[in-house]
Amino acid sequence: MKNDVRELRLAAGLSQRELAEALAVSRQTVNSIETGRYDPSLPLAIAIARRFQRSVEEIFHVD
Amino acid sequence: MSTDRPLGAHRVAATVIYLAAVALIVVVGLLVQEHGPGNMGRGMVQGAGVGLVGGLFVLWRVTRRPASATTFERSWTQTGDERDDAVLTRALAVLGLVTFPVTAAATIAVALGSPVEMVLALLLMTQFAVGAVAFAVINRRS
Question: Looking at the record's lineage, which domain of life comes first (chain B) (predicted)?
Fold first, then answer.
């Protein structure tokens, strides 16, 4: 599954560590999500979407 | 999802588990030293002691330096997030699958006359190695 987390994070001026702290996960988890190696659970995907004020469908997509 | 679990509860649980582990190691170590072959009891206590010290170091890192703790440290202390739990679960699943044929091979080796102590030691080391490699590979790929 692809996602736009990295682009949104950079646009918001956040480091991986800062986003990880905001989501209460580890920096490795944020990095794994951004590189597509790990697909987050629905609660975490919703938390990410809320952090960037987007919908889950806008951030996570299959293509 | 969260790493923001109450550390106080973890500390109490960890302390209780550690005290129980120390008591168990001492009792079993004395029993094995008394009834086991050679220096098996001493070796068991020494190995378990090293493991306990390593565990205390991991707990210290997770408590004092959570930002720099590794996936391994977070997952084994149950302070990790959902990815840490997933990595540990998958690594343990691999270990569980491998355990069956490895144990069968060890049983056959004993049946064919191999020294039981040596086979058991090799079995334990193999399982540790499989678990460690599985964890490292899954952690790198996910």
Answer: Bacteria
Q: Nearest CB to A26: which of B3, B86, B142?
A: B3
CA B65, chain centre distance (Å): 22
**Nearest-CA distance A38 → chain B (Å):** 5
Under 8 Å between Cβ of A19 and A30:
yes
Give the mean pLDDT per block of 10 residues along chain A (63 residues).
Answer: 94 96 94 94 97 95 81
pTM, entire model: 0.80
Q: Residue A3: beta bridge partners?
A: A60
Q: What is the ipTM of this complex?
A: 0.89
Assigned token pair, B107: 């049983």
Cβ contacts below 8 Å, chain A against chain B, sum to 43
- How far is it, in rounded angstroms, from Cα B140 to Cα B138? 5
